[in-house]
Each structure stands twice: as structure tokens, then as C-alpha cells.
């Protein structure tokens, strides 16, 4: 056993800032686990997810919340979903792999993405400088999710509350992504 | 303020200070720069494009051809700004443009005297002799004289932004039709965006004296705007020009966010919106046009509707003695409105005979015209055909109104002519989802505009499944709007101007026709009619009519040019948005970036990645010192390199192995769990396009690495294959490139170093041989993946941990490696070592080379089908005398090799016919002590030891090189297997 230990460094070193009425913060504790549905395995996968995550598989642009609120599931591609856990656990992937017992193919994505939460009454004003998705209530209600591109960076956007959004983008370009979102907030705050 | 009159929609309680050419002037909130200049008696505002004739404000809107000024100062200076669209603010600074010397005494005005030599297309006919003078003298002089404003030449200090908006209904233009449409759509519950280029919504309602619903039109507009503003489903975009209609209901719009503020406060000056609409209602109104008569370009000659606008909206009279020249009823409205405001109207000249309008105190001439004007820097007199001269310092001209059909043409829609309006209206072929209402559609009266706006919006509402509001429609009366087409006054020797911005005269158009440029498209290009910043908004129809007359055709027979985006100029800065400087594109950082920055790394861009190219240590005099040291220390002990940038693709599924077998040219189906294999990918055409390693972590789970450059391409191609070629396979792909921090640990001491890091894992050669892989834990409990692969040719591993531990891992590895004198190495040392080892990289896998050429012919399996395997069998790709990748070393070991040099047999004259191949990669090998290279040469594998010429005409070098094995170091691979 090695006598050294590794410490985790958040992609944005835990960035958390309030700009005007808006709060922009890195989500350092999320666990993101991709679940791909085996060919012809939709039924089994849905049952397994219902049993172990206590949630339904959502439609393409929506999301579902587990009954205890600890896990939200979004669809990220055809036959591919992502479980977003509020609290990080290094062993989540193994746990899920075992729990779901081959009903889905599991890939840990926690370190692939950087998570930013954007909260405040002017969130849409800031996001419309970045986000091609129509964020109007009628099109993007609370719980809606979409994959899109913001400032040339692939992004998953999830509306988690009336004025709350979770943005996921590639970890390697986290600095550029933060700059893009922060610039939008600064430009739209009085 | 000598030209202010009562009334208007300006706030006289506040005074705004501004300067024009350094002269201090006053204005009020609600003024444009143009109205404020007129209020201060400034008639001369610029010089014309070609002849440098004095010019004044001509219009009151975005159609302005003359009053282009430079706004703001120093780096923020913006040329060619229309004074008619610049909202006045305190401290505004404007200067006139296109003159040498002062505005009043422009030295270039000599051009006006040389006008016989500068007619349409003069540059095709003159300055032809002597020929050598063109490039040395004529062209530089013409270029120096051309153009209007000047750029500052400095970096623009303002910021710009982009954005995305969505709506059910985009209403373009907030005049009577637009307001009526937005009101109806908004009341029906549609999501509405109402955009208008003006800072005050209302369009002509703010410029006229008509009533709507029993109140002044401007009051109705303000009331309507207030109602719309209170609706949650309506978004108002004043100061916003919808400049282009694009596919699928997408519109481009430029919002001038802070142009009207003295200080933008760090906020974007302008925002370029992409508006996604389900429906659009174009309510762009109409633009008045002039008539051509002698010297009709003098400062003081203006469009009649504009003169009325300045009086009614801005409380300014452009002249103290105003004459009106019209061919329609609208010109009379100007005369009546001015007279009602106490402005002296000296004469009304109507080209129509038998008109019965009257105006007390004014000379009325019907069936008449104006043949000439006088007043060098401002109008003094007009002359009638009978020679009578009438005093006037302002002449209001109305040649009729042209519907603003521009956006209807943006997808090749062609307008159609209406004789009753003497104007083009939108044709039937509109952009998808677009409807047109109001004057833009030829409904020229106020009542008609209000009505069609509302009706169109109600139709759209029904299409959207909404119920139109039952609230009463706004009421107004149809004003007189008769017109009899009249284009130009003949029989005068004076030049009559058609396009003020481009100095195109009636004579130019006729001459163009005489010289054979008879198509309207040719006319435009030959004369420049309708070009430049105003795109001929006031000139096109007039020019067309004169061409039609010259050719003896009707206007419909003559045809028209159509319009493309943008409707009005859009600054390049707005197109760029915030994408400038280091924010031009995203930057990707490796997990060890921070550590590398702290440890002397120099970074290089590889795609979007910033990669350490070398780590400078104190005392090193150049990059070669650092790179040589990194190579030597790695080969002698151990080096560590961040290889996170390599693409990583997680591949899972029951058929994952079969899938890989079809993707790679070599066999993968039987790769054992716990093993890694090098793989080669071919394109469908049989050429090699990427390589890498793939590890099998379980029966159904593989991890692929790709080259950094092709990570996205490979993923995309594999996803295509998965979804479209073989949907019957159970396989899933997901990119994990960013998820793992991966470090190459290479060199004879790499195993000993890693043994200090791994948790209870046997790294011995027997337990974990070359090309093994494993999932394990390191440093106590951190999950990791270990691959025994080598790009350097040394005993080497690649160790991966979740990216969040990447920074920590490089620090731990360096600390653990201290006892071995471990060294970080960068991209250059990595390159040197792979060249020494003879590994192909991007320079060799350039998309034009085959597996056989790369020396990897045996990796294209004949026992299975894979992408590209069939076409790789083509005979031309398998010739024995084809190129082969080999090594090169200089015959004179002191010589330095250069990539890009071409090979020639000794004694041959370098030419395409004798070309034998080219050098792809070179490096100085610190291990060998001389320069080495890789390259393709014909039959290279059969020519070992032969001396050939490496000829480099670009560097003017010729070096004798010896063909050798590409494996300069450890050709048997003993080190990496050790």
C-alpha cells in the first residue's frame, strides 16, 4: 500500500460568486453516471432503474427525480441516460454497476464534466446570451434538460428550479466555460 | 438654436452638449444627431463620395445617403455612422468625413471640376496609359481617394455580444402596422417580439399629425407601447434592426444596447441576436424617394417626409423658407404641416397637372418642375422651367414612397411592380413563415396599415391555435395618397443626381445603357448605383425608372435587383461578438496544467489544448537544451508526460469486440481481458486515418485511445458506424477524454517509481507484461487504470486517475520520482522519442498515406472485413515501388535535417518527375548525437544504406542523407518489453 494520498481538485477550485442578483457556483459534489441501454433491453433497464434508483427513465428533453430527491436522471442520447447524484461518492459507478447488474452499461462521467449552477431571477437574461435553447416556461419548464452548444462548447442544461439552472460542460475547458457564463451574467446585470 | 420650433417629442427640460467638427452645440433628449445639427443650423455635414460635393442631411431615417459622420473619438471612433440614426447623448463627438482640409474648404472638391473624366466606369476607360503608371500611380491615388470614413486603426475598445431569442411572432417594425400587429398577437396570447430600429417606437406615427382612436398618433403609439410593455408575452426591442431573414424563420437582428449612452459601463455596445420565430410579420414601412433634377443634391434639398418628421417629431425646421416639389399628395402634407407650425412655405411645385390642393401664402405651380438650384454650400434658390427663381433654403422633395421589401428578398424573393403606387411590393415568394403588412406591403395609408397589421396578426394567431382578441381595432382615416409617376426633369444641362451616396447621375445611367450595360444587374455594377452603406434605399427605383426610360421598356420589363442581408450595415465587431483575443475559442487545459505552469513549462496550442512543450530549468539557454535533457533523463531513468489529451472512448456492449473488429483494420475480436492492442483505422477509401491503443477491461468493456487531433472525428465516425452501419450490434460509446488524467511514465526506472504509488499491485514483467492493462487503486484507495504501453520505446506505462486527482497525481509522481531524478517531459521530447523509435504520428498519418506505406501493411487483416479493408486492396495502393516510411540520417552527421525536404536520387535534377518522396518528421536525437528524420521514399524498405539528396528549395538546402531503418533506438523492442 502506497503511503501517499491523492487529493481531489475541483475543476474551478470551487468557484462561487454572486454578481448582482445572480449566484454562479461550481458544483463540486456531483456524481454523474452514464447509463446506456443494451440492445432490446429497455424494459429490463427501466425496471432496474425504478428498483434501484427509485426513478423512471425520462423522455428526451425532460428529467425525472428519484423519490428521495437525491438523483435526477436525464436523457443524453438515444438509449443513453445520465444519473446526476447530488452527493459524490467515488464508488458510485461500482455500486451502480453491481446494483443494476448488467441491465445498463455504466460509465462514470463525474470527472468528464464541470458543473455550474446559475441561480437568480435574471438567469434567463444571462443564458440567452449563450444558449440557443428556448428557455421559456412553455418550452423549458422546471425539470427540462437539453444538450446544446454554448460558445462552441458542448453543454447540458438542466432547469432545476424556477430560477435555477445546472450547466454541465467539458472539464478540460471549464475555465473557458466559466468565463463565458460569467461574462453573460456580468453583461446582463445592471 | 435658431431652427427650433414649437412642439415635438423631445425633452426640452434637459440640454445635451455635443460637438460637430469641434464646434460646441446643444440638443435635447429625443434628438438624433441629425435633428440636433439641423436645430443648430448646420446644413453642410459631409462631402460626396466621388466629386466631394457639399452634402447635407437628406432623410430622417436609416435610408440616409449623405449625412455619414465619424462618431466618437480615438480608438472608439466609428466611421460612416448615419447622423439620422445616432441618438444624441451628452458629450457626443462627431466629425465629418471624406474631405481633405476642412469640411467647408475641401481640396478634393477639384474632382467636381474633373467630373467629365470621372463618369460611370471611368476606371475601366481612363488611366490606361502608360500601362506601368496604373500600379505605381493611378491605382494608389484612386485608392487613397476612395472610401468615405476612416477606421481608427486601433483595437476597438468596445465590447459586443451575441444572443438567442425565440418567439411565436416576430414583428419587424413598430410603426402603425407593426404596433397594430404586435397588439393583436400579444392580446391573443402569442409570444411576440417587436423590433424597431428607432429608439422611439411608433414609426411614422411619431412624425405625422394624424389621429388614431381620437388621439394624436404619437400618443396612441406611446399608449400602445405601454400596453405591450405590460404584457409578459411581449418583448420590445427598440434600437434593434432586423437585418436579415435566414432559413427556417431565423432572423438576424442588431440591438444597439449602449450606443446612446455617454458611458457603456463595461456593457456590450451592441448585441447580435439570432431570433428563432414561428411566424414573422414584416411591417417595415416605406421609404420616400427623390426625383432627379438639376443640382438636386445641395445641402437643404431633402425628402419631404423627412422635413415633416423634423418639424413634427423633433421640433426643428430644416429651413426658414421651404419649397416643396412633389409628384404625389404626400408632398402637400409636408407643406401643410410646416405651414401649420409657422414655417414659411414659399412654393409648392407639383409635377401633376390639375391638382387642386392649395396653401395660403405659397406659390403653387402644378404640372411643373424644378430644373435647377443654386447655393454652393447650401440651397439658396430653386429655378422653375420658365426661368423663375424662388428663394428657398430648404427644398422638400417627394417622388413617392417605396415599400421596404428588402427582407422579403433575402431568400431570392422578387418584388412585383404596382403601377398605382409607382413602386415595387413584395412578391409571392416570401421566406417561410413571413407575412407582410402595412406600407411594406403597399397598404400606404394609416388606416390600411393599422387594419392589415391587425388582420395579419389575427391570421397568425389562428395558425398558432390561439383565439384572436375581440378588442376593437384602432380607428384612423385614410389620408389622400394619389401619385402620378414622375422620375426626372429633362432638358437641363445641370447634373441631376439619382444616387447621392455614390454620386450617380441620370447621365451616368443613360451612358451605362448606351455602352451596353442594359441589364439592371449590369447597371448596378457599372455605375455603383445602389451600393455602399445605404444600398440605394432612396435611389434604386429612381435609377431603374431612368434605365427603363432609356431602354424604352416599362419598369416591370426592366426588372429589379433584389436585396440581400444586411438591411443596414452591421459592424464587424458585432459579428465577432465576444469571440476575440484569447476568448476567440475555448481553451482546454490538461489536469497538470497548473503544476506545469509552476514548473517552467512553455505551452503550445494543439487544437484547443494547451500542452507543455518543454520545461525550462535554470541555466538552459534554449528549448533544445530543455528537450535534450528531458529525452536523456527519460531514457536514462524516468520521465513523466501528461498524455490526457489523447482521445478516450468508453466502449461497452455484448458486441463491443465485434464492433472494434470492424472498426480497426487489425484483429480485435480475440483480445484477451487485461490486454491492450495497438490498432490502425482506415477510412472507407482504404487510407489510414488514425491509430491508437484499445484496452479490454472486461468481456463487454473496452477503452480506446485515439490521437489528440482525431479524438472527435474518430468518435463521430464510430457513432455513425454504430447507429447507421450496424444498428444490430449491442454496443455503446461515450467519450471519457476529460474524465481521466493520464500520465505516461517512461524509462528504465518507471516500474520502480510506480511501485511506490500503486496499492498492492504486482508490476513485475511476468505479472504485468508489455501490453497489459488493469484497473487498480493507487495512493491508498484512488481508483486508477494502468496500461503498459510505450510511445517512447522505453519500459513505460500510462497511468490514469479520475481527472480531479490529476493535479495531485503529478505532484505525487514527481515527489515519488525524486530518488530517480524523475523529469517531466513535454510534447517536444515526446516527439523526439517517437521519431527515435520510428512511430508514426500526424505528420505520417496525414490522410494521404496507406498502411503499406507506413510499414503497417500486415495490420490490414485479410481474414475479416473492416472499414476500408476492401478498398485498401486496390493494386495502386499495393505497388512494390510505392513509398515506404523509413528513417534518414545525414551523411555528414553534423548536418541538420529539415521536414518538408524532398528526396531525389543523386545526380537527378530536382523536379516533379524525379521526386522520390519527402521528409515528414525530423529531430535532433540526443541519444545518437545527430539529426534524424522519418520520411516516405519510393521503395524505401529496399534501399537501406543508399545515399540520396534531401532537397529543400524553400530553405535553399541540399543535404545528402542515408536511408536507414525508422527504428533508430532499440529496434528489437527489448527496452519496452523489459
Description:
The complex is a heterodimer of chains A (190) and B (978). Chain A is α+β, with helices and mostly antiparallel strands and 190 residues long. Chain A has two domains: 16-28 and 112-188, 2-Layer Sandwich (Gyrase A, domain 2); 31-110, Heterotetrameric sarcosine oxidase (Alpha-Beta Plaits, 2-Layer Sandwich). Chain A has helices at 42-53, 92-100, 123-127, 174-188; strands at residues 16-19, 22-26, 31-36, 63-65, 71-77, 80-85, 105-108, 113-119, 145-150, 153-161, 164-170. Chain A has a six-stranded antiparallel β-sheet, covered by helices on one side. In chain A, strands 4-5-6-3-7 form a five-stranded antiparallel β-sheet, with helices on one face. In chain A, 48% of the residues are buried. By secondary structure, chain B is α+β, with helices and mostly antiparallel strands. Chain B contains 22 helices and 50 strands. In chain B, the strands form 13 sheets. In chain B, strands 8, 9, 12, 13, 14, 15 and 28 form a seven-stranded mixed β-sheet that branches. In chain B, strands 41-42-43-40-34-44 form a six-stranded mixed β-sheet. The longest helix of chain B is centred in the middle third of the chain and has 18 residues, at 446-463. Chain B is elongated. The termini of chain B are far apart. The chains are: A alpha+beta (190), B alpha+beta (978). At the A-B interface, β7 and α4 of A face β8, β15, β31, β39 and α20 of B.
Amino acid at each position: 500500500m502506497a503511503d501517499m494520498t491523492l487529493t481531489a481538485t475541483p475543476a474551478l477550485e470551487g468557484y462561487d460568486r454572486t454578481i448582482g442578483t445572480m449566484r454562479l457556483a461550481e458544483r463540486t459534489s456531483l456524481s454523474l453516471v452514464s447509463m446506456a441501454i443494451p440492445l432490446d433491453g429497455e424494459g429490463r433497464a427501466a425496471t432496474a432503474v425504478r428498483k434501484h434508483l427509485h426513478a423512471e427513465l425520462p423522455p428526451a428533453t425532460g428529467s425525472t427525480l428519484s423519490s428521495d430527491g437525491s438523483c435526477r436522471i436525464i436523457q443524453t442520447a438515444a438509449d443513453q441516460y445520465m444519473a446526476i447524484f447530488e452527493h459524490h461518492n467515488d464508488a458510485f459507478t461500482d455500486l451502480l454497476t453491481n446494483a443494476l447488474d448488467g441491465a445498463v452499461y455504466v460509465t462514470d462521467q463525474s470527472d468528464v464534466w464541470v458543473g455550474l449552477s446559475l441561480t437568480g431571477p435574471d438567469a434567463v437574461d444571462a443564458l440567452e446570451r449563450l444558449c440557443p435553447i428556448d428557455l421559456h416556461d412553455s418550452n423549458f419548464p422546471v425539470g427540462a434538460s437539453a444538450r446544446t452548444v454554448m460558445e462552441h462548447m458542448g453543454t447540458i442544461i438542466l432547469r432545476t428550479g424556477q430560477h435555477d439552472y445546472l450547466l454541465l460542460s467539458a472539464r478540460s475547458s471549464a475555465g473557458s466555460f466559466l468565463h463565458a457564463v460569467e461574462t453573460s451574467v456580468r453583461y446582463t446585470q445592471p | 438654436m435658431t431652427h427650433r420650433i414649437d412642439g415635438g417629442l423631445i425633452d426640452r427640460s434637459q440640454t445635451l452638449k455635443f460637438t460637430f467638427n469641434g464646434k460646441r452645440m446643444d440638443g435635447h433628449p429625443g434628438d438624433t444627431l441629425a435633428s440636433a445639427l439641423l436645430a443648430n443650423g448646420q446644413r453642410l455635414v459631409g462631402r460626396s463620395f466621388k466629386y466631394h460635393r457639399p452634402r447635407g442631411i437628406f432623410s430622417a431615417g436609416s435610408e440616409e445617403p449623405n449625412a455619414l459622420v465619424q462618431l466618437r473619438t480615438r480608438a472608439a471612433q466609428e466611421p460612416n455612422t448615419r447622423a439620422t440614426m445616432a441618438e444624441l447623448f451628452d458629450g457626443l463627438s462627431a466629425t465629418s468625413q471624406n474631405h481633405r482640409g476642412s469640411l467647408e474648404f475641401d481640396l478634393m472638391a477639384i474632382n467636381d471640376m474633373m467630373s467629365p473624366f470621372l463618369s460611370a466606369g471611368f476606371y475601366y476607360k481612363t488611366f490606361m496609359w502608360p500601362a506601368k503608371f496604373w500600379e505605381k500611380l493611378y491605382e494608389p491615388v484612386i485608392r487613397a481617394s476612395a472610401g468615405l470614413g476612416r477606421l481608427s486603426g486601433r483595437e476597438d475598445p468596445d465590447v459586443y455580444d451575441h444572443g438567442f431569442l425565440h418567439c411565436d411572432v416576430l414583428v419587424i417594425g413598430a410603426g402603425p402596422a407593426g404596433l397594430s400587429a404586435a397588439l393583436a398577437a400579444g392580446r391573443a396570447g402569442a409570444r411576440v417580439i417587436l423590433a424597431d430600429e428607432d429608439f422611439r417606437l411608433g414609426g411614422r406615427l411619431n412624425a405625422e399629425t394624424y389621429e388614431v382612436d381620437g388621439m394624436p398618433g404619437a400618443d396612441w403609439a406611446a399608449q400602445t407601447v405601454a400596453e405591450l410593455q405590460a404584457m409578459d408575452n411581449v418583448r420590445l426591442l427598440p434600437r434593434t434592426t432586423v437585418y436579415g431573414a435566414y432559413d427556417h424563420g431565423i432572423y438576424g437582428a442588431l440591438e444597439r444596447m449602449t450606443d446612446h449612452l455617454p458611458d457603456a459601463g463595461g456593457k456590450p455596445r451592441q448585441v447580435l441576436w439570432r431570433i428563432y420565430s414561428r411566424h414573422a410579420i414584416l411591417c417595415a414601412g416605406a421609404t420616400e424617394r427623390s426625383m432627379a433634377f438639376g443640382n438636386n443634391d445641395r445641402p437643404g434639398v431633402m425628402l419631404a417626409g423627412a422635413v415633416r418628421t423634423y418639424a413634427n417629431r423633433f421640433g426643428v425646421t430644416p429651413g426658414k423658407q421651404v419649397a416643396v416639389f412633389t409628384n404625389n399628395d404626400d408632398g402637400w402634407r409636408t407643406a401643410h404641416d410646416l405651414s401649420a407650425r409657422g414655417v414659411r412655405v414659399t412654393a409648392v411645385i407639383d409635377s401633376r397637372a390639375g391638382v387642386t390642393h392649395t396653401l395660403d401664402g405659397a406659390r403653387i405651380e402644378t404640372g411643373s418642375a424644378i430644373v435647377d438650384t443654386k447655393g454652393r454650400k447650401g440651397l439658396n434658390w430653386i429655378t422653375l422651367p420658365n426661368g423663375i427663381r424662388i428663394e428657398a433654403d430648404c427644398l422638400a422633395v417627394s417622388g413617392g414612397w417605396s415599400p421596404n421589401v428588402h427582407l422579403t428578398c433575402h431568400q431570392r424573393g422578387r418584388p412585383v411592380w404596382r403601377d398605382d403606387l409607382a413602386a415595387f411590393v413584395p412578391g409571392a415568394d416570401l421566406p417561410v413563415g413571413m407575412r407582410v403588412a402595412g406600407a411594406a406591403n403597399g397598404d400606404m395609408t394609416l388606416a390600411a396599415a393599422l387594419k392589415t397589421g391587425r388582420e395579419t396578426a389575427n391570421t397568425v394567431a389562428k395558425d398558432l391555435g390561439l383565439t384572436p382578441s375581440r378588442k376593437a381595432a384602432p380607428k384612423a382615416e385614410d389620408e389622400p395618397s394619389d401619385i402620378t409617376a414622375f422620375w426626372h426633369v429633362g432638358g437641363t444641362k445641370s447634373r441631376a443626381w439619382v444616387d447621392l451616396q455614390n454620386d450617380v447621375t441620370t447621365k451616368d445611367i443613360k451612358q451605362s445603357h448606351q455602352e451596353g450595360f442594359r441589364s439592371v444587374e449590369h447597371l448596378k455594377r457599372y455605375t455603383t448605383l445602389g451600393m455602399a452603406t445605404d444600398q440605394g434605399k432612396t435611389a434604386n427605383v429612381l435609377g431603374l425608372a431612368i434605365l427603363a426610360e432609356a431602354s424604352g421598356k416599362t419598369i416591370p420589363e426592366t426588372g429589379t435587383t433584389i436585396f440581400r442581408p444586411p438591411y443596414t450595415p452591421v459592424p464587424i465587431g458585432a459579428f465577432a461578438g465576444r469571440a476575440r483575443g484569447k476568448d476567440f475559442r475555448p481553451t482546454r487545459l490538461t489536469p497538470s496544467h497548473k503544476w506545469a505552469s509552476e514548473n517552467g513549462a512553455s505551452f503550445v496550442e494543439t487544437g484547443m489544448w494547451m500542452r507543455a512543450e518543454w520545461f525550462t530549468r535554470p541555466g538552459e539557454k534554449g528549448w533544445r537544451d530543455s528537450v535534450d535533457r528531458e529525452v536523456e533523463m527519460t531514457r536514462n531513468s524516468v520521465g513523466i508526460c501528461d498524455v490526457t489529451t489523447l482521445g478516450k472512448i468508453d466502449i461497452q456492449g455484448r458486441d463491443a469486440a465485434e464492433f472494434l473488429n470492424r472498426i480497426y483494420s487489425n484483429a480485435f475480436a480475440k483480445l484477451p481481458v487485461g490486454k491492450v492492442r495497438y490498432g490502425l483505422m482506415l477510412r472507407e477509401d482504404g487510407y489510414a486515418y488514425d491509430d491508437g491503443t484499445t484496452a479490454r477491461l472486461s468481456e463487454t468493456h473496452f477503452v480506446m485511445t485515439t490521437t489528440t487531433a482525431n479524438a472527435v472525428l474518430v468518435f463521430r465516425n464510430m457513432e455513425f458506424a454504430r447507429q447507421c452501419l450496424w444498428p444490430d450490434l449491442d454496443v455503446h460509446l461515450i467519450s471519457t477524454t476529460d474524465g481521466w488524467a493520464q500520465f505516461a511514465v517512461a524509462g528504465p526506472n518507471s516500474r520502480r517509481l510506480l511501485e511506490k504509488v500503486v496499492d498492492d499491485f504486482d508490476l513485475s514483467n511476468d505479472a504485468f507484461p508489455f501490453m497489459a492493462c488493469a484497473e487498480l487503486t493507487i495512493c491508498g484507495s484512488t481508483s486508477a487504470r494502468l496500461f503498459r504501453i510505450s510511445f517512447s520505446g522505453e519500459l513505460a506505462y500510462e497511468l490514469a486517475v479520475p481527472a480531479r486527482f490529476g493535479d495531485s497525481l503529478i505532484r505525487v509522481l514527481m515527489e515519488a520520482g525524486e530518488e530517480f531524478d524523475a523529469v517531466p517531459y513535454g510534447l517536444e521530447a515526446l516527439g523526439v522519442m517517437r521519431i527515435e523509435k520510428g512511430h508514426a504520428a500526424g505528420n505520417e498519418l496525414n490522410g494521404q498515406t496507406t498502411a503499406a506505406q507506413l510499414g503497417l501493411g500486415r495490420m490490414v487483416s485479410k481474414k475479416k472485413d473492416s472499414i476500408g479493408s476492401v478498398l485498401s486492396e486496390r493494386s495502386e495502393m499495393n505497388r512494390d515501388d510505392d513509398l515506404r516510411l523509413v528513417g534518414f540520417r545525414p551523411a555528414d552527421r553534423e548536418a541538420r535535417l529539415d521536414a518538408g525536404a524532398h528526396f531525389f536520387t543523386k545526380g537527378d535534377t530536382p523536379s516533379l518527375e524525379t521526386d522520390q518522396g519527402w521528409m515528414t518528421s525530423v529531430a535532433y536525437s540526443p541519444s545518437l548525437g545527430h539529426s534524424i528524420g522519418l520520411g516516405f521514399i519510393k521503395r524505401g524498405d529496399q534501399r537501406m544504406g543508399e545515399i540520396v539528396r534531401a532537397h529543400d528549395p524553400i530553405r535553399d538546402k541540399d543535404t545528402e542523407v542515408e536511408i536507414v531503418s525508422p527504428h533508430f533506438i532499440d529496434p528489437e523492442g527489448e527496452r519496452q518489453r523489459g
